[in-house]
Design a protein that fits this description.
135 residues, mainly alpha, 5 helices, 0% strand
Length: 135
């Protein structure tokens, strides 16, 4: 009867050690996995990409709309307004544009673009309060 402490089973050929054989098998398995096509690996539900127009419409917000129409309004004030300092108007335009874009991006990142109604409520209320004090 063979002693269990000295009995070994031969997995690899005589010229290759067992560790090398296991290592190469693991490498070949890893290589096979990396060469598989992305479609053959199930990742869950397929991602649906909405059309570009719909994504842009979802991203619109009151601050973004204000920032888009503000240049037209400032050009109108520059042409017609004699009592407004042109340098002050240009400086306020730049400052307002930067702040509108910044606050809009911060709110969208904070709510992760998921709570659009809440973003609209915040931006509309801030815009109305600002318009009340400016006018």
């Amino acid at each position: 009867m063979a002693d269990p402490r000295t009995h070994t089973t031969k997995i690899a050929p005589e010229d290759k050690p067992v560790l090398s054989n296991q290592f190469t098998a693991a490498l070949f398995h890893l290589l096979d996995l990396t060469q598989q096509k992305q479609e053959s690996i199930p990742t869950g539900f397929p991602l649906k990409r909405s059309p570009l127009k719909l994504r842009i419409l979802k991203r619109l917000s009151p601050f973004l709309l204000t920032a888009l129409f503000l240049p037209v309004l400032c050009v109108y004030w520059l042409i017609t307004g004699d009592d407004i300092s042109k340098w002050l108007l240009c400086a306020l335009f730049v400052i307002t544009e930067i702040n509108l874009f910044y606050i809009d991006i911060v709110l969208w990142k904070y709510f992760e673009g998921k709570k659009i109604a809440r973003i609209w409520m915040i931006e509309v209320s801030v815009g109305l309060v600002t318009a009340y004090f400016v006018a």
